[in-house]
Amino acid sequence: MTITLVLLAAAVLALPPAVGVRARLRVPGSNGSASVGVAPTDHHATAGALDLLSACLRGGLDIGSASSAVSSVAPEPMASALRRAAQLLTLGADPDAAWSALSAHPDTESVARVILRSARSGTSMADATAEAAADLRVRADDAAAAAGERAGVMVSGPLGLCFLPAFVCLGIVPVVIGLAGSVLNGGVM
Q1: Among the listed residues 40, 13, 8, the one whose alpha carbon sits nearest the alpha carbon of residue 24
Q2: In terms of C-beta density within 10 A (0-12 exposed, 13-18 middle, 19 or more buried), how is residue 32 classed?
Q3: What confidence tens digit (pLDDT) does each residue in 79-104 have?
Q4: What secondary structure does DSSP assign to 93-134, as a single string?
Q5: 67: part of which helix (H) or strand (E)?
Q6: Longest CA–CA separation in the chain, Å
Q7: What pTM, to 2 d.p., does this model score?
């Protein structure tokens, strides 16, 4: 049984998607190429910052002052873009140039589109940012649900690999041996 487990562990590490397995086994902070990457954005924190921006705008602040106030509590890809936009808007820059940093990041690109659309059309930015926050929360919830469903599917493979051999060895083989013994010892034949 020990040899079987050792061979199973070696097979799991040698499978073609071994990069994912080795990345999960790697100690965080090691030099491996699979652990290098950009940290994912917390979409709920971004949505909270957008709600705060909306509240500042509803309270009467202009977009530059509201962006500057929110940049201190926003998550990082959004914080630096809000800070830059506030500085550029204070200097009188074009909204397209001011919000370009926000539109450069894929997680905040939809927010930049909403803000630019609102700046061009003159509609309320407070409503637009609140809408963007709600949309971001829905997308984050959908992504979390999809990840949970993927986890359930990914767990079924290892469980099948563990329980199916045990079921065969402990459930079917003794029955077959018992039946074969009674058949071969003068039972049916």
Answers
A1: 13
A2: middle
A3: 888 898 889 888 888 888 888 888 88
A4: --HHHHTHHHHHSTTTHHHHHHHHHHHHHT--HHHHHHHHHH
A5: helix 63-71
A6: 101
A7: 0.60
